[in-house]
Design goal:
With 330 residues, the protein is an alpha/beta fold. The chain has 10 helices and 14 strands. It has 2 domains: 199 residues, NAD(P)-binding Rossmann-like Domain (Rossmann fold, 3-Layer(aba) Sandwich), CATH 3.40.50; 101 residues, UDP-galactose 4-epimerase, domain 1 (Alpha-Beta Complex), CATH 3.90.25.10. The chain is globular and about 55 Å long. The protein starts with a strand and ends in an 8-residue tail after the last helix.
């Protein structure tokens, strides 16, 4: 396949690009580098610095590189920011997303993978969460992703664009080869924050709430290794190429780990101690978020290769230890 990866210089995008190249596909990365890093893009692909909302650019890339498949990971994804800047999230995630989709269907592209999120579900009514769970997002970020999923459904009906939407739970870890990893600014994800404390780059780690109805009182989340996420994108593209219908899939390990378990795992893996503080609960944090990924396992044969928390943390620790300042040119 000749694949255009929008957002391919980002955390998940760079891992997806590496996986596509390993599988022998031709890859064009389109990224405006507002969040991503050029250094994260694997050699062997074409890199274009630009915006997926630029319809003329997208059409030119489709023609020049004979693009037949697209992976869309270019979006703003900070939950807190989305609640105070809904205009930004509607403009970037929805407005540019619609421009992108329209340019693709007008250029004859027929296969599309959307990077979506478990945030489309909102407060969980049961656990583990399957794809039949009600979708009632409680933040703007999740709302924009759900709306783009709905738009994809209408585009398929009108234009025949087949798609797979992958609803990620908590992406974590780093490429086991150590070349690419997680480097956000600002960093909001738990595992890299705890690792920064272990490296002495943060004064402390704060646990927000210790009175949840969980075994140790802290929130439980489903952490999935970023390379396992990347592998799912390739399986989804190959299924569409083989003629499979459009689909929506959850991506998680089906295993929950508490905040305290993450902290203790980083301590064990790093061999370092650090200060842990306790703060009040954050509004909107559910006690437990765990995925059911049975559907993608059944339909596409997906199986996590790095499913345990210890392995996830080890890969993240090794990358951050080798890149304490993140990517050098970010």
């Amino acid at each position: 396949m000749s694949v255009l990866v929008a957002g391919g210089a980002g955390y998940i995008g760079s891992h997806a690009v590496k996986e596509l190249l390993i599988k022998g596909h031709r890859v064009v990365v389109l990224d405006n580098l507002s969040r991503g890093c050029r250094e994260a893009v694997a050699p062997g692909c074409v890199f274009v610095c630009g915006d997926c909302g630029d319809a003329a650019l997208v059409k030119n890339l489709v023609i020049e590189y004979k693009i037949n498949s697209v992976v869309h990971l270019a979006a703003d994804s900070l939950v807190g920011e989305s609640m105070v800047r809904p205009d930004k999230y509607c403009r970037n995630n929805l407005g540019k997303g619609i421009n992108f989709l329209t340019a693709l269907v007008e250029s004859g592209v027929g296969r599309f993978i959307l990077s979506s999120t478990a945030a489309v579900y909102g407060e969980p009514e049961y656990s583990p969460i399957d794809e039949g769970h009600p979708t009632r997002p409680v933040n703007v970020y999740g709302g924009t992703k759900l709306m783009l999923e709905q738009i994809l459904d209408w585009y398929e009906r009108a234009y025949g664009l087949r798609y797979v939407s992958l609803r990620y739970f908590n992406a974590a870890g780093a490429d086991p080869g150590g070349d690419i990893g997680e480097d956000h600014s600002p960093e909001t994800h738990l595992i890299p924050l705890v690792i920064q404390a272990a490296l002495g780059k943060l004064e402390k780690v704060t646990i927000y709430g210790t009175d949840y109805p969980t075994p140790d009182g802290t929130c439980i989340r489903d952490y999935i290794h970023v390379s396992d996420l990347a592998a799912a994108h390739i399986l989804a593209l190959e299924a569409l190429r083989a003629g499979s219908p459009s689909a929506v899939y959850n991506l998680g390990n089906e295993l929950g780990s508490s905040v305290r378990e993450v902290v203790e795992t980083v301590r064990r893996v790093s061999g370092r101690d650090f200060l842990v503080a306790v703060g009040p609960r954050r509004e909107g944090d559910p006690a437990v978020l765990v995925a059911s990924s049975q559907k993608i396992k059944r339909d596409l044969g997906w199986q996590p290769r790095y499913g345990d928390l210890e392995t996830i943390v080890k890969t993240a620790w090794e990358w951050h230890k080798r890149h304490p300042e993140g990517y050098s040119n970010k």
